[in-house]
Amino acid sequence: MNADTSELAGTSRVLSAPTDRAPVGVPLRVLTMTTLFPSAANARHGIFVETRLRKLCASASIDLRVVAPVPWFPFTWPIAGRYASYAATPRREQRYGIAVRHPRFVSIPHVGMAMQPVSLASAAARAARELSEEGWSCEVIDAHYLYPDGVAAAALARRLRRPFVVTARGSDVNLIAQMPAPRRRIVAALMQAGRVIAVSQALKDALIRIGVPGDRIEVLRNGVDLAVFKAVARESTRSRLDVGSAPLIASVGNLVPEKGHDLVLQAARRIDSAHVVVVGQGPEKARLRALADRLGISSRVRFVDNMAQDELASLYSAADVLALASLREGWPNVLLEAMACGTPVVASAVGGVREIVTAPVAGELVARRDENEFAAALQRVLEARPDRAAVRAHAAEFAWQPVVQRYHEILLAVALGGRR
Fold first, then answer.
1. In this predicted structure, what is the pLDDT of residue 81?
2. pTM of the predicted protein model
């Protein structure tokens, strides 16, 4: 078979073409390609993608391989921050029974955005070639995040002559797709995709606005793991945090401006005796600490690095309210996680947030990013003290099972279309 003349570097042959008909009872072979995936070196990165795949494999006949490239970096020195975690990422690992490969790709911060899809596709193609040499080839490619991942997946799909599905998740649409050059490449890739998944209706609407036909897009929201996120150890966690009977506000997310932790702190100072636990890592930590000092509430604010899911469940259970003051969101999982633990929320009315906080028992939406309005909403929810069992019941409406059932149907339909 002649090699494809695609732009991908480092590959010399394609996989065999899909068969006309898969043998009965044989699992669907899926290759997931994404830079959003956890590793032994970065256990929280892209955990929402891993969770969806775990639920899929648990409920459907899937033979899954994950290719999750990471930027190349030579040193594991702690001073290098997140780049050190890239260097420490294993080349191969097993996570919850899923085989994961982490090939390296070249990514130059701030200046290499245009080259990222080509570099990423080349790394993924090398991994696909290794899999082929081991006797495994996919029937469908499953990509997550539109740029560079989705654009790279389109190139990989052409190279391997396989159909692909791509999922839009948030800032890939709300931020990157608003830039003219990436937008053109994103739209071209989505027109090639067998199916486009958006994790919220708001993201689907945004994709339509940039020129993607609506009939190519399906909304498939994330679910919440009710077995992990449930009410646990409320009083013991509050005792450990030394908050007594004071209101406890949780603010969870990467410490970056987009997440609005600063607005949560500004609002919290207007609530008597309120304590705040800020969970996350990122470049804003020093600035947020300084802000807490200036606001005179540093004694009531605790900063905690990223937590494992069971630890997060304990924090959510201990909190009286979760605050999410984001500038933009796709489908913020933290809202459902908190609600599943019985904790109501106060959140900016952006993106998919409006599709989650749909009942008074769930909490309140704040239309403007104003500290007085945010503080007033927090105060109302704290005073209302909604029944925690009722809050969890609202979250239970977003269970994973119907999501992964439809996810499997989409992958299967796209794979069968590729065979035809």
1. 75
2. 0.86
